[in-house]
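Lab channel / #folding
Pinned by the channel admin:
"Please post every new chain as: sequence first, then the structure tokens as a reply. Keep commentary short and put observations after the output so the thread stays searchable."

First post following the new format, from NK:
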Amino acid sequence: MVQLTLPKGSAPKKGKTWPKPERAKKVKKFKIYRYSPEEGGNPRWDTYFVDMDKCGPMILDVLIYIKNNIDSTLAFRRSCREGVCGSCAMNIGGHNTIACTQGWDEIAGPHITIAPLPHQPVVKDLIPDLTNFYAQHAYVQPYLKTDTPEPEKEWNRASRWPV
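Reply from TO:
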């Protein structure tokens, strides 16, 4: 399980356990880290039971299903759903990964734990504070630069790349 670095006295406690869906044949248990600064108090681990026949194959699909059908207060980031942007990065089953490309059937064990990235401060639930990340990104300037002046309309491909 993920080891979160937390201030003294703020260890996650056992949270709410949501009821199992009735008449579901394929049920999976998910333990999800929950923290809301507005509510105060310690973070908690809420337990959800999801009918896997009613949601898609990825962890992000499970989170969306939980938010839409079980607990609308769950907070997480999502954007492209293609593994490009990385906005849904979190710790799933003890590994840092992105939820839109991680299949729930790829994780062994009786339940799946989902937590925020352990090296980032938490804003709410599974949402990390990315202020420091964006500052570092701007500092390293990870894009191509040119010595030629910027054109008024658009770059001409032929003039940018020597043949």
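NK: The chain has one domain: 13-160.
TO: also worth noting, The first strand starts at residue 13 and ends at 17.
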